[in-house]
TrEMBL record:
<dbReference type="InterPro" id="IPR003099">
    <property type="entry name" value="Prephen_DH"/>
</dbReference>
<keyword id="KW-0560">Oxidoreductase</keyword>
<dbReference type="InterPro" id="IPR046825">
    <property type="entry name" value="PDH_C"/>
</dbReference>
<dbReference type="InterPro" id="IPR036291">
    <property type="entry name" value="NAD(P)-bd_dom_sf"/>
</dbReference>
<protein>
    <submittedName>
        <fullName>Prephenate/arogenate dehydrogenase family protein</fullName>
    </submittedName>
</protein>
<feature type="domain" description="Prephenate/arogenate dehydrogenase">
    <location>
        <begin position="8"/>
        <end position="297"/>
    </location>
</feature>
<dbReference type="InterPro" id="IPR008927">
    <property type="entry name" value="6-PGluconate_DH-like_C_sf"/>
</dbReference>
<dbReference type="InterPro" id="IPR046826">
    <property type="entry name" value="PDH_N"/>
</dbReference>
<dbReference type="Pfam" id="PF20463">
    <property type="entry name" value="PDH_C"/>
</dbReference>
<dbReference type="InterPro" id="IPR050812">
    <property type="entry name" value="Preph/Arog_dehydrog"/>
</dbReference>
<dbReference type="Pfam" id="PF02153">
    <property type="entry name" value="PDH_N"/>
</dbReference>
Length: 314
């Protein structure tokens, strides 16, 4: 999708995997005239500059947002409030302020109160990512054929919402809109719980005494390694996700534990029908994901398709 730039100046606060990918997508597709980059550490800022991700670079987030008509917070969700306080006095009237955080209720609670009158705050979450982080991990096609969920307030300015929707569409995403609390419930089951299960199973394997670590690694292709990709995700990001989507995650964990107990009972009592029925039902979910274009129809999760990075939905 091509066309005239949508924004004069985009400020990216945080330039890790997501910020870097946005910078590259926006540049490649001509979505903005100018990109201002800000991040916390001099080392990351220097790397962003070496990669040519922006037109200007600053350690001061308020300098980056000055004059920007699009501001995107690309920091861990636990850092949003401090950043919002910092940039609030410098935000331009009429600007769109959005974010990419994996939780949405907390962002609204923590950022919302600091947004000045006349600035359009529309939280967002691209359902696209990898287990890598930092500016080098970004790539321009990350958002292609992935969903981006916007959680606008009820009284949102429609023109601003349409403009932000157009931005994500031109990054290659499909855009959905939903209530922030519903977003958090949906993401708890499709993203947060799978990551917790992966962290837990890899941690359990690491703690085992009867099976050695070298055996776990040597025979990992039998299933374990698929969990290790999720369990290699950024610790800061995932600590913040857990702390900022506490209620929904605890609710899903309770459901999960009940179902796991039922599975345990079926194994104990030799209830093969129960196991077979469940495994048949779950297999059809995998087929639906492939049909929806959210994964590749290749054995071994498409690992041998070397030309495409494997993309996860975080
Ligand atoms: P990342 O690669 O680790 O980059 C994080 C960026 O935020 C860096 O520029 C880092 O700055 C900055 N930062 C970290 N802690 C900060 C703090 N306390 N105050 C100010 N800045 C801070 O992270 P990412 O994967 O791009 O994730 C960014 C956001 O996207 C998160 O909210 C995450 O929930 C969301 N998200 C991630 C994924 C995914 O798969 N990774 C997918 C969808 C959405 P320095 O390097 O300079 O310290």
């Amino acid at each position: 999708m091509t066309g005239a730039p949508l924004f004069e100046r985009m400020a990216l606060i945080g330039i890790g995997l997501i910020g870097s990918s946005l910078a590259q997508a926006a540049r490649e597709r001509g979505l903005v005239k100018e990109i201002a980059v800000s991040t916390r550490s001099p080392a990351t800022l220097q790397r962003a500059e070496e990669l040519g991700l922006g037109d200007s670079y600053s350690l001061d987030a308020a300098v980056a947002v000055d004059g920007a008509d699009l501001v995107i917070l690309c920091v861990p969700v636990g850092a949003n409030e401090a950043v919002a306080k910092w940039i609030a006095p410098a935000l331009k009237k009429g600007a769109i302020l959005t974010d990419v955080g994996s939780t949405k209720g907390s962002v609204i609670d923590q950022v919302g109160p600091h947004v000045p009158q006349g600035v359009h705050f529309i939280p967002g979450h691209p359902i696209a990512g990898t287990e890598q982080s930092g500016p080098d991990a970004g790539f321009s096609t990350l958002f292609e054929q992935r969903w981006c969920i916007l959680t606008p307030p009820e009284d949102v300015d429609q023109a601003a919402l349409e403009k932000l929707t157009a931005f994500w569409r031109r990054c290659g995403s499909d855009v959905d809109r939903m209530d922030a609390r519903h977003h958090d419930l949906v993401l708890a089951i499709v993203s947060h719980l799978p990551h917790l299960i992966a962290y837990n199973i890899v941690g359990t394997a690491d703690d085992l005494e009867t099976v050695t670590k070298s055996e776990v690694i040597k025979y990992s292709a039998s299933g374990f390694r698929d969990f290790t990709r999720l369990a290699a995700s950024d610790p800061t990001m995932w600590r913040d996700v857990c702390l900022n989507n506490k209620d929904a995650i605890l609710e899903m964990l309770a459901r999960f534990s009940e179902d796991l107990s039922a599975l345990q009972r079926a194994i104990r009592w030799g209830d093969g029908d129960m196991l077979f029925d469940l495994f048949t039902r779950t297999r059809s979910i995998r087929r639906s994901i492939i049909e929806a274009g959210q994964d590749m129809d290749e054995p071994d999760f498409g690992r041998h398709a070397k030309d495409k990075p494997f993309i996860s939905a975080d």
